[in-house]
């Protein structure tokens, strides 16, 4: 029995050291050297160096003077990140979307873009399609007393064109650019 037990325990201890200690240290070290920005949370900072958020996590912006992110089922809390899990046939989902659509609707712009009404799978997606951001431009321009063309320029500058998938706008980065205008 001892003949089998000792090698088994030695192997368990060795694998625990490798997979629980060495491997995580090596991966963390490589990430810090090769991708330091991403390994440290893709943080966005203001001009004073203060952290304003992460480029990977949406934030809740209130008021007409800000571009708003997608709705969040978890109130933008990273611990509670998740979809609402409400089926398309659920009356609560239909009621929330109808209420949100009525609040966001602008007759001159037509129907509210779907991205402003539906949550992402995680509830924390920081990106919106450019059309959903463009829909908000008249509201933000009126609240900040800025020309629409100036805001359209900010949106174009903030539009990301990933290698795969459609163009997107990071709402936090866009609002940081808006904040720099000082209106």
Automatic annotation (TrEMBL):
It is found in: Cell membrane. It comes from the Bacteria. InterPro entries: KdpC. Keywords: ATP-binding, Cell membrane, Ion transport, Membrane, Nucleotide-binding, Potassium, Potassium transport, Transmembrane, Transmembrane helix, Transport. It is a single-pass membrane protein. Transmembrane segments: none annotated. Belongs to the KdpC family. NCBIfam families: kdpC, PRK00315.1. HAMAP family: KdpC (MF_00276). The system is composed of three essential subunits: KdpA, KdpB and KdpC. Part of the high-affinity ATP-driven potassium transport (or Kdp) system, which catalyzes the hydrolysis of ATP coupled with the electrogenic transport of potassium into the cytoplasm. This subunit acts as a catalytic chaperone that increases the ATP-binding affinity of the ATP-hydrolyzing subunit KdpB by the formation of a transient KdpB/KdpC/ATP ternary complex. This is Potassium-transporting ATPase KdpC subunit. It comes from Pseudomonas promysalinigenes. The gene is kdpC.
